[in-house]
Amino acid sequence: xxxxxxxxxxxxxxxxxxxxxxxxxxxxxxxxxxxxxxxxxxxxxxxxxxxxxxxxxxxxxxxxxxxxxxxxxxxxxxxxxxxxxxxxxxxxxxxxxxxxxxxxxxxxxxxxxxxxxxxxxxxxxxxxxxxxxxxxxxxxxxxxxxxxxxxxxxxxxxxxxxxxxxxxxxxxxxxxxxxxxxxxxxxxxxxxxxxxxxxxxxxxxxxxxxxxxxxxxxxxxxxxxxxxxxxxxxxxxxxxxxxxxxxxxxxxxxxxxxxxxxxxxxxxxxxxxxxxxxxxxxxxxxxxxxxxxxxxxxxxxxxxxxxxxxxxxxxxxxxxxxxxxxxxxxxxxxxxxxxxxxxxxxxxxxxxxxxxxxxxxxxxxxxxxxxxxxxxxxxxxxxxxxxxxxxxxxxxxxxxxxxxxxxxxxxxxxxxxxxxxxxxxxxxxxxxxxxxxxxxxxxxxxxxxxxxxxxxxxxxxxxxxxxxxxxxxxxxxxxxxxxxxx
Length: 486
What we know:
Distance between the termini: 52 Å
Mean pLDDT: 84
Strand content: 15-25%
Structural class: alpha/beta
Low-confidence stretches: 316-323
Oligomer: single chain
Number of strands: 19
Helix content: 25-40%
Shape: globular
Number of helices: 12
């Protein structure tokens, strides 16, 4: 089959793509900017030929005219859960309408949509939006299959990372009353199973299913369950006085989530998200799902083995960056401030390159980490992403990866070049580049280049205000990059 995959750079899409290709399907990945699309590490090279990249923007229907019209099925994995646009409800409906119009130009015989369980009354705006998207997609000629899920537990998922942050950072939690809401968590492996099994399955055409694991838990029980899995003792006090906005700030400041995602989660957590047995998928696709504790154990196993395939923060809406950030792949030359450090070395270049590729996350920034953490806290205070997003893998980088409060633009290991673009809130734009250069005498040197393009007078004042710290941070960074591990 030829399958169109939307959301190919997102958490679910990156995991689904290798499964579809391995099953013998040809997959067309719809992306806004092909420059930020990278094939997942889990996709064998022998299957790369099965993947095609198509450029298109669901909010600009004219761009969809270039998409292939000979597809057999499509996955619609587009959500704006972490989007900050106040009109996201209308935007999601428009995207779905444009997609349905495109589908009607193809012979597609199925479209699969991953939605949310919404059996409660007085639904949050995000759950109402998911239902509205279902209604729009059902108007297309291709039969619609909907999988409605509650919280997804897996390494890198937003829900898992937030629960993990709360448990590992706070021995005592004073929490809002939404912690008593109930949900039916499901493991990412089980979601992948259902997404692939419903494909081209006539029994699933034109139907919506609730999918969930065997456990129905309150969020309080989920937190305590993760604490028990990690051997932590935690105390939780639930109070009724935290407003939704205060709850959002509490979640944002304590965890690695963005404020917009925290707002969306808090509003949605007022609803119970428990599956309706009459809509269970088990009658059509029998399958024994993992328990919550088993899904947690698998997630931590993947983390410990450095096998996190995708992360919620891979999506641009997880931060504050513009959609066309790859336009910054070349550092401008005019109107810029630069700090260039050059450090010769005689050890094997591969060892220093490995240090560069492991920068950030748990490894840190090689110099005055407390200042980097302070800058992250300052960024959080003004609504930025802060440092807590970390990195997808401790040793692997690819274009588009989040890296603390940076985004990877270029990760060219063969060319010995790493280029980062600042996702923190700044009165301007900032780049950080590392290169290993060959020297005339046969040795090597690390070039570390910090570049900044100010925006207005305040942008220039910002540069001069942090200039005194550059001598401490940047000189020490490049020196320690070269010496680390010797």
